[in-house]
Amino acid sequence: MATRASRPKRASRWNVGARVLAAIPANYALTSLATAWIARMLPMPPAEASAAATLLSFVLFAVIALTAFAAQSVMRLWLWMVGTGAFLGACLWLSLVSGGRL
Question: pTM of this prediction?
Fold first, then answer.
C-alpha cells in the first residue's frame, strides 16, 4: 500500500496549461529572437548565417520544449524564459541600432 508521501504528485490544469504555453508560443518567440540574433552575429555571409541560424533553431526549439515539461517549477521556468527573452531582445536591438548587417 502506497503512503501519501510516496504517491506521485498530480499536475494541476494550471500547471499543465502554463507549461504548454511555455513549450509552444513562448518557445516560438524565444527561438525567433535567438535565431535573429545568432544570424546577425555569425561571421559569415548573410545568406549562410541565416541558414546556419535556422538549422540551429530547430535544435533550440526542441530543447526548450523538452525543458518546459522537465522543469520542476513553473515559476522558475517562466522567469527564465522572460529573462532570456528580454536579454536576447536587448542584444538584437543593440545589434540593429549599432548598424549591424541585415
Answer: 0.84
